Amino acid sequence: MDFLATYNTDIGIKKSTNQDSLAIRIIDTPMGKIAFSIVCDGMGGLAKGELASKELIMAFCEWFDKKFTKEITQGEFNVSRLHSAWNEIIQEQNIRLGKYGAQNGIMLGTTVSAILMIGEEYYIVHVGDSRIYELSDKCRQITNDQSFVAREIAMGRMTEEQAKVDPRRSVLLQCVGASNIVEPDFLKGTLKKNAVYLLCSDGFRHQISDEEVMEKLGPNVSNTEGLLKFGCIYLTEVVKNRKETDNITVSVIKTI
């Protein structure tokens, strides 16, 4: 499996800081090319949300660059070890950010959605309401939002249309740094060839439809890194023109 990858992140039309953070890694290994992407959407007063998201990104990147690459090179990778490492990062950062917030009299936290692509499989860890999609013959949401409105929809107490305009749409059930207990979702699936795996903060998705995403980032229209980049920027500008007030971040990896 080979990959094309790009991203776009934007402060948006209202906020004074961009509290989203992201990273992408693509490496050659004895197991073939491996791709990794992560998006974190921070929250907190002043620039503290930015601090939370960047700290978690840095922790995951340190794991990938040092521990994971060593495991792959030595043939020691397995799913149990992966889940353990990811959970350890999240729990450690939850405690660390929580202590920092308590010492400074603030509350800060971050979502996390990350995907690792190895061979024919993908592995995902997810906390909060950033999302991961698979774009192939259709736009399929892989992750489930851990948010108040998502729970209300699942319980039949709110429609999706009501959730779009509900003032509580950004209220999370858990996030890293501001929750006493964090229970990440771990997902596994089979990679599709000629598909786009899209990670985004919630600001990217509020004002556009699945059809619009497919039109600009679907596998049949994104045959080069340049076209992928154009699609990310174009959709970001559409979202801004429709008055989205949040930060906007999107990361895409295409399988080829």
List the helices and strands and how they pair.
Layout: E1 3-10, E2 20-29, E3 32-44, H1 48-73, H2 79-104, E4 108-110, E5 112-118, E6 121-127, E7 131-135, E8 139-141, H3 148-154, H4 160-165, E9 185-190, E10 196-200, H5 202-205, H6 210-217, H7 225-241, E11 248-255
Antiparallel strand pairs: 1-11, 2-3, 3-4, 3-5, 5-6, 6-9, 7-8, 7-10, 10-11
Can you walk through the features of this model?
With 256 residues, the chain is α+β, with helices and mostly antiparallel strands. 37% of the residues lie in helices and 29% in strands. It contains seven helices and eleven strands. Helix 1 (48-73) packs antiparallel against helix 2 (79-104) and helix 6 (210-217) runs antiparallel to helix 7 (225-241). The longest helix has 26 residues, at 48-73. The radius of gyration is 18 Å and the shape is globular. The termini are close together.
Helix fraction by DSSP (H/I, runs of at least 4): 25-40%
Order of helices and strands: EEEHHEEEEEHHEEHHHE
Note the gap between the termini: 6 Å
Alpha plus pi helix count: 7
List the defining traits of the structure above.
globular, single chain, five-stranded antiparallel sheet, alpha+beta, six-stranded antiparallel sheet, about 30% strand, about 260 residues
Concise summary:
This protein has about 260 residues and is of the alpha+beta class. Helices cover about 35% and strands about 30% of the residues.
